[in-house]
Amino acid sequence: xxxxxxxxxxxxxxxxxxxxxxxxxxxxxxxxxxxxxxxxxxxxxxxxxxxxxxxxxxxxxxxxxxxxxxxxxxxxxxxxxxxxxxxxxxxxxxxxxxxxxxxxxxxxxxxxxxxxxxxxxxxxxxxxxxxxxxxxxxxxxxxxxxx
Length: 147
Description:
By secondary structure, the protein is α/β, with parallel strands linked by helices. It contains 5 helices and 7 strands.
């Protein structure tokens, strides 16, 4: 189930900034908690407007370095390591006012570890979208016929 898709009880799971931050034990440092995200992405090349970008650290790159590009591309929010927004938030020097607008509209959530935060969010979404009751169904095994 992707965010916004109907769950087992017919309701859609809404990814608001406040709910997302709570699932990840993160701090909402820029923007409002009512902001909703369409989907989640760790790659700025596949990011769509309205998505939440996770700046995950990899072997060769630190995704937090691309958080500004994600916001400029139209991300509704970014998840970055603590201390990022104080040093990196806002448009790059020399940016036009057209580029500066998305930075004011985006949400910044700071966490201790972006990879763990992504896992925590996935767990929270799974828990929130799981059916309230599970029915176990016994399956009767058929005996094998020998020739």
